[in-house]
Design brief:
3 strands; 66 residues; 4 helices; globular; CRO Repressor
């Protein structure tokens, strides 16, 4: 399985194709990129892709910000 940052995946295939591959809208892809979300696209090896977001648990996010 290949894991690629969303920004890199979109650069390679474009926002519309990325949205189609991930079952999202182009607007959702654009918003995730603008927000700087830590999203990775995983190539499942069978022509399908899925996306995962890395973020801290809510309690940890508050402590990290302090």
């Amino acid at each position: 399985m290949q894991r690629t940052p969303l920004k890199e995946f979109v650069t390679r295939v474009g926002q519309i194709k990325a949205a189609e591959e991930l079952g999202m809208t182009q607007g959702g892809i654009s918003k995730a990129l603008r927000a700087g979300r830590e999203v990775y696209v995983i190539d499942l090896g069978n022509g399908k892709f899925k996306a995962e977001e890395i973020k801290p648990f809510p309690g940890q996010a508050q402590r990290l910000a302090s």
